[in-house]
């Protein structure tokens, strides 16, 4: 692994939130970074970690960084980790999650889609939710618009995303462009694991870093190689460890069309044909909270209390 950017901020200033974004030589647009740098809280309160699986450095992201330097603006990301896997390896999202978790400085980990659109109060909203319940597992649903007119990405307004030919998967109930609610999402996955087929539990997971470490981080088992699975695998194990999960009923992130957004022609591990890992689904019945294959560095922190 190598650093392209390393967090060199004052060690006395500890961010509240660490946002982990993934790439495996697929991202065409880096707009999520732009949205995350336009939040209504102090920039010192959060860090952005970009994790690349392959031995690859995205030129558009380098250009964005260079533009910030020339304009004397803060760096758009705080850490850029390149894991340097050769092209002969198939990408593994969970390996990337763990890299971000290991190097995160924040109390709260946010694992989210790297091409999502967020509002300016996104991070202040998350902080407020955790002030109410510090040990919660918070999921945020992603509303997707499949209209091809937004590709290449052109920074559409929220009204444009929600209007016209908006497609609402996962039974999202739309009353108007300002009032949206999610039917029975307040029911816990513990009570009804089948909700994994109703809502997008892979779009955005927010959880305390200490709690993720306590369950051994993301499972690096080969069943999770490629497109299938995501942060909800950790959610099932966190529930087994006694934590409360919640999918927020009225706050969302957003996404617009780009090619291959559904993982077309990507390798998919064992799944139920509905895009959900059968290995992850089995966790509820198994009752286990540790991974099948635990990251060795996370295991040392969990068992020995050694900091990375």
Q: Would you kindly provide a written description of the structure presented here, covering whatever features stand out?
A:
- This protein has 308 residues and is α/β, with parallel strands linked by helices.
- The chain has a single domain (2-288), classed as Spore Coat Polysaccharide Biosynthesis Protein SpsA, Chain A (Alpha-Beta Complex).
- Helix content is 25%, strand content 20%.
- It has helices at residues 31-36, 59-70, 93-103, 122-132, 158-162, 209-214, 232-240, 278-281, 283-286, 296-304, and strands at residues 2-5, 17-23, 46-54, 79-85, 108-112, 137-145, 173-174, 180-181, 204-208, 245-256.
- The strands form two sheets. The protein has an eight-stranded mixed beta sheet with strand order 1-4-3-2-5-9-6-10, with helices on both faces. Strands 7-8 form a two-stranded antiparallel ribbon.
- The two termini are 14 Å apart.
How many structural domains in the coordinates? 1
Given the structure, what is the number of helices? 10
CATH architecture: Alpha-Beta Complex
Q: Give the amount of beta strand, in percent.
A: 15-25%
Spatial strand order of the main sheet: 1-4-3-2-5-9-6-10
CATH fold topology: Spore Coat Polysaccharide Biosynthesis Protein SpsA, Chain A
Low-confidence stretches at least 5 residues in length (pLDDT < 50)?
Answer: 169-178
Radius of gyration: 18 Å
Task: Give the N-to-C terminal Cα separation.
Answer: 14 Å
What's the CATH C level? Alpha Beta
* Secondary-structure element series: EEHEHEHEHEHEEEHHEHHH
Number of DSSP E strands: 10
Mean pLDDT level: 90
User: What is the assigned CATH homologous superfamily?
Assistant: Spore Coat Polysaccharide Biosynthesis Protein SpsA, Chain A
Largest sheet: 8 strands, mixed
Which overall shape is indicated by the principal axes computed on the Cα atoms? globular
Overall helicity? 25-40%
Structural class: alpha/beta
